[in-house]
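writing this on my phone so excuse typos. first protein, seq and then structure
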Amino acid sequence: MEWLNRMRDALDYMEGHMTQPVNMDDIAKAACSSPFHFQRMFNLLTGVTVAEYIRKRRLTLAAQELAMTPIRVLDVALKYGYDSPEAFAKAFRKAHGITPSAAREPGTVLKAFPRLSFHLSLKGDKEMDYRIVHKEAFTVVGKTMKTSSRDGENLRKIPLFWLECNKDGTYDKLLELGGSVHDLLGICADINHEQETLTYWIAVESGEPAPDGYSSTVIPAATWAVFTSVGPMPHAIQSVWARIFQEWFPGTGYEHSGGPEFELYPPGDPASEDYRCEIWIPVLKKS
């Protein structure tokens, strides 16, 4: 499959440039993809960001060099992109649990983060319904938090953010601001794959001014691929997210356009077996 070969080409490019500065444009070009779409695909398919993968691979290779050659720690640090021995030692200890110097001792146990590989898994026995929606720009009002995608921080903090908003009356206030629209939105915006950060919104579509303690922003006009999730949260929607990036994107002529993406939650019991919600992803047709 073409997309599989492209992902392998991107991995080959990364492996061949581990001692050089990360150039996301060139990595994505190897996959014949935009930088944003490639990084989003990589993250959803592998569970790690491109930056995190490169960081772990570099520390794996650095440990091998320290264990097998007389190269100086400073030279290894510089070779793998660290500005100082102190920064390298901190990262090395986090990855391996020991100092770089200790890696030279006979019998020392080191951790290895192997090179990833992509394999074709034949699926498609279950249909995947979606619709394409053209929507003009719209304004949302809500509360925001900044988080990191490094080491899965966002997966821990975002559910806590929802719990907090449920307890402090934010839900009721947002529903009031939404007027006749009672759908809550969970929006991922300002996604910066290189810095591994994003801004997460719990919001409603509304033309009302943002009250004190709330923010507003405009979601730009876009073409959206919309997918329906049926089942209890969060397992059902997480399963749909996985299928979108493992099956739908590789099997269609679309890619992520790079804008905000969101989940739409209608009223109802999110724990019920028949709860329906939606994933909206901005897309464009590949040229």
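second protein below, same order as before
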Amino acid sequence: MENQNDGRLPLLGMSLTELQSLTARMGEAKFRGQQLADWLYKRQVTEFSQMANLPAPFRARLQEQYTVGRELPLSSVTSKDGTRKYLFPAGSARTIETAMIPDADRRTLCISCQVGCRMGCAFCATGKQPWGGNLSTQSIVNQTISVDESSSLTNIVLMGMGEPMDNIDSVLAALTVLTAPWGLAMSPRRITVSTVGLKAGLQRFLNESECHLAVSLHTPFDDERDELMPANHAFRIEELLSLLRRYNWWGQRKLSFEYVVLARQNDTPRHAEALAQLLRGIPCLVNLIGYHPHPASPFQRPSQVTLIQMRDHLNDLGINTTIRTSRGMDIGAACGLLSRTQRIP
């Protein structure tokens, strides 16, 4: 693998237009940009020497000025349920985590978009680690094509470390690479992006992407959400729902609400009834997620009976609700547990 820290820019993550502009600046024909895109995203090579249809002098000049941009995982660990967690380098001697979740014929990759997270949600392990900055488009795309299961992935979720709407430029650019015909050509209906609800980034995402949206809600009451999720101070629940109601969720694009259930905190019939009232008229799915305790948090996991009662109550009130199965808990890969402070020697 090439040295990623020697000042050369990575090609991975660039759009077709950017690659064509690059080849033009280097005095090459426009079609060379398409060839580069094919090698990066279709054939997913790791070295310029593998780009056999490019002239050797051009490959040599590329080698001098750029890197391919591929970075393999530093390590991985597999859960007893088949979930696999990967550790990737993230610059400045920091690392990020990526989780692959198998389920029957599905292979879902949960990718990260930041090193840490600035949202400070009270129950989440990622936000407890030092902030390390936004990931580049290259780093986001690299997670997708550098895991062992890359060729068999069926779905991608941006629900790993970080808040996608807080890194919206890189996230939208990565989504373009993932879905464009010249890129990985995945259907946007196979990709879900999660958010706590940052207004500016969310508006851009809704207008510029066709991928599914998952909103982390966790309580129907602003005062409680203020405590659990500080981002709520800037964008209240009713404002968030008012924005979402402007868009069409009746077609193929789907909207879901993630609801981490905290024992004796947000799991009462009062919460279910207020939530149903808030979401009435919005075609959506509510995912109940039993909290995954970690040492830095005071919260506890609810009983399975409580989860089932809350699910059934919401369904009786007309809100399509499921309980998300916890995966990878034994390797710290479950929802809210991704957290990496390890530094590369």
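Residues 304-316 form the longest helix (13 residues). thats all i got for now
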